Amino acid sequence: MGDAIWTGGCLCGAVRYEARGEPVFMGYCFCADCRKASGSGFIPFMGVPSGAVKITGTVIVHTLKHADGREAVRNACAACGGLVYGGEVGKCDGHTIYAGSLDDPAVFKPSMAIFTRDKPDWVVVPPGLMLFEGLPS
């Protein structure tokens, strides 16, 4: 992908992003939080440095504090409710783009699956991924 530009956004188009370059990591998260937030068995995610992505539109921010001190920040469109990205704009080094929001789904090339210990039995994990019981160190 190199210096390619890739784009995406929410269901109604009110929240949009434009990112440049290769994502740092791509995979599936099976944690209970991602399952509840998405209403699905997992969230397909792509990690990008905050400087590589420009996000526009009004979002509803939901922050969940974990027992270990980490915070999960998810951003959904204020108009349609579509989940688009994780991380707080202007306050974090990187963002997690939710691959379901991509304009071109072919950009997503997962290499890992995290929190596999929480994966529902009805979800089939694609072959060839690095599997992690929890969060990789």
Could you explain the architecture of this structure?
The protein has 137 residues and is mostly beta strands. The chain has a domain at 5-24 and 42-111: Metal Binding Protein, Guanine Nucleotide Exchange Factor, Chain A. It is built from one helix and eleven strands; from the N terminus they run E-E-E-H-E-E-E-E-E-E-E-E. It has one helix at residues 32-38; strands spanning 5-9, 16-20, 25-29, 43-49, 53-56, 59-65, 71-77, 83-86, 94-98, 112-114, 130-131. Strands 6-7-8-9-4-3-10-11 form an eight-stranded mixed sheet. Strand 7 (71-77) and strand 8 form a beta hairpin. The longest helix is centred in the first third of the chain and has 7 residues, at 32-38. The two termini are 26 Å apart.
Structural key phrases:
single chain; eight-stranded mixed sheet; mainly beta; Metal Binding Protein, Guanine Nucleotide Exchange Factor, Chain A; three-stranded antiparallel sheet; 11 strands; 137 residues
